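P.,

For your records, the input lines for the assembly:
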Amino acid sequence: MWNWRTQRARRARFEAELVPHLQAMYRFACALGAADEAEDLVQITCARALERQASYRLDSNVRAWLFTILRNELVSRHRRTLRERSLASERALLEADATADSVELLLLDRRWSEEIRTALASLGERYRTPVYLKDVEGFRYREIAVVLHCPLGTVMSRLARGRTLLRALLLRQATERGFVRVGDVAPDRVARKESM
Amino acid sequence: MTSACRTLRLELAAYADDELEVDGAIEVERHLEECGVCRRAVGRQRHLSRALRELHPAAEPSEGFESRVRFASFGPTSVRRAAVVGALIVAVAGLGAAAAWRGPVGVPAPPHDARPGADRMRSDALVAEPAPAVAAAAALHRAADAGAVPLGLASHDVGTVNAWLHARLPFAGGIGDPGSDAITLSGAARVVLGDHPAGLVRYRQGGRTISLFLMAEPAWSDGAPPVRVGTVDFRIFQRRGLDLVGWSHASISYLLVSEDGLTTGSACATCHGGSARGAIAEFVAAVAGHTTGTVL
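Structure tokens returned:
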């Protein structure tokens, strides 16, 4: 009887730890480009988490653990698609210029919500996930390293590259709409161009 | 940009993210005091992070998402507990009581609608006193709105919803293709209306959720005079501030529950695309013609 009650209490506590992250998991699945199956992915993630409940230590970082399961599930479903998206984003990175100082202020000023979503969604998964987790969901580097199964240094370099690409994409949109002129580049960029 | 800048590139990003330990932060700040290029880079990164944090739109799951996941993962006890908590919140707020939960295929006890006049019937010859099953449909709709009725299937895809219904209903019922982005399917559930096993399809349109019940036979009596459009007789009910429209077609009976089903016909567009606009308009006009001058 004691054991049964302990198990029930543990399950209830596990549920209490898991439920607050359901919405964030849904958003994460959507950010990874799986809006059509986001709910399904969240349900599967919960099922997997329950299966592995015994190996989970209560009060440890349940958020990073759940996001890891969800991402693993998505990657295993769409390995091919995700790789193709990544290659496409790399090409965009090479074509873009992202040095204007004003682009983020412009975004905030003009409330470019949809443009930001589109630009982030167009990044390859290897850059999109760390940028989304850090800047939108507020994850720490070490949590992102858990989700991505990679060293801290890799998280940092992917974040840096992802943000560079994201700025480039946003700047391109701003330039195309005439909000930023081609000559509006940062002084450091000018100096670098002149020295080349 | 100096070699020091390149060496500190990742540390600068970590500094902007507030991820550095004290020693690392002191080293970066020492460099920033001397380097305007890196100061601007840190500023750019912080602005970008802020733009993402504040402007990236949050994806919204369909209605009842949390209940469905809780039900699938932790069983009905979890949903019941959540519903009780929700009901307590609602009660404390003085907005009325939430519905009680009786399991995935039962009919929840009709929630009491505290709005003044909510149960008052339109003194219209067209609007019939609803049969118990029709009243149960209105109650189920409200209970589902309150998150007390988890959907057995969460899906936006009409094919998936129909396949799910076909596998679980004792009759061949399904819905047509919405054919419009303005309509978002939420999913389906198996329910019982009175003695009638029924399928429930929920969808969102224009910020409102609509319930469509499918049955093998009408859950309403023939007492109310029908509104005839083409060869189909529609029967209209009102309950708890909701419009309920029932009709039978091709051996299946349907009951549509919405908040404005009689005035716009928009709910009808779920199963009827552009080709049926004329019929929908005819239905709305027929209802309006009969109801002119009625006292609510």
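Two observations worth noting. Residues 62-95 of chain A form the longest helix (34 residues). Chain A touches chain B through 53 residues (CB under 8 Å).

Regards
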